[in-house]
Design goal:
The protein has about 270 residues and is mostly beta strands. Helices cover about 0% and strands about 55% of the residues. The protein is elongated, with a radius of gyration of 33 Å.
């Protein structure tokens, strides 16, 4: 039996073999990188809570439900937990790790840890698209001078439809026809923007998301947000949601009702 101390790391060893012949020698060179112990230990991972998720060691998946994994002694692990969509990771429950950060452990004995996940509370209520004119919700028609300020912004509480696929419409009918606001997302700034286009199509298609900070879609004081500027006449702004994502304005529930907000603005001389 050959024993190295300490047990980890790269080791070199030499065995001399005796012989009865004068001048005859023998040599065996041993080289081992890593763990030399043959001991193994068990990592038991318990998944707890109402939610679901997975536990990984670096990029290697370990468990998507409660499980046990055997590792050689002295194996170093860096455990992370990732919640599934609709769940949240609450943290580790073990003397070795607390909180939600990476759990670093060394397998020098059997270890048991618990990863707790909570099911997110499902949003309730109908989607609530809202149009703001000059920063305020308007329940009546608004009249402005052709040289006055007009800022149109939208907000959205997706309600029960959050993360559901839908068509989102920000459009208006004006003196020269229909215009649609083509929404774009900037990955660098993590902000939404867009331009009005002379057409009639959805502003956004995909999973519904909250718009908590008002998204300015039109301002006659900012160049480039409107193709021609304001003209005298009636403008009807619509902000609508339908849950059939097909590029067509469909009934959201088959009843002929859209989730919609609308505002009328009369531009006068």
């Amino acid at each position: 039996m050959i024993t190295f101390t300490p047990t980890g790391g790269e080791k070199d060893g030499m065995i001399s073999i005796g012989t009865n012949y004068i001048g005859a020698t023998g040599k065996i060179t041993l080289k081992r990188t890593g763990i030399l112990s043959t001991d193994e230990y068990t990592l038991t991972i318990n998944m707890d809570g109402s939610g679901t998720g997975s536990v990984m060691n670096g990029e290697d998946m370990l468990c998507t439900e409660s499980c046990s994994v055997v590792f050689p002694a002295e194996t170093e692990l860096h455990l992370t937990a990732e919640a599934d969509i609709g769940s949240s990771f609450d943290g580790w429950s073990t003397e070795l790790c607390r909180g939600t950060d990476t759990c670093a452990i060394t397998m020098n004995n059997d270890i048991e840890i618990t990863a707790a996940f909570t099911l997110d509370e499902a949003p309730t209520g109908d989607p609530e698209p809202e149009i703001l004119i000059n920063g305020f919700r308007r329940n009546v028609d608004m009249v402005i001078n052709v040289h006055g300020d007009l800022e149109v912004a939208v907000t959205l509480d997706p309600g029960f439809a959050q993360d559901k696929y839908a068509d989102l419409w920000v459009i208006y009918e004006g003196p020269y026809g229909w215009y649609s606001f083509d929404m774009e997302y900037d990955d660098i700034s993590s902000e939404w923007s867009g331009l009005w286009k002379d057409d009639f199509y959805p502003s956004w298609q995909g999973m519904l998301f909250p718009i908590d900070t008002p998204l300015i879609v039109l301002s006659n004081t900012i160049d480039g947000t409107h193709p021609e500027g304001l003209h005298i006449g009636e403008y009807i702004f619509y902000f609508m949601v339908d849950l059939i994502m097909n590029g067509m304005m469909d009934d959201s529930d088959g009843s002929g009702v859209f989730f919609m907000d609308s505002v009328v603005v009369d531009v006068v001389n």
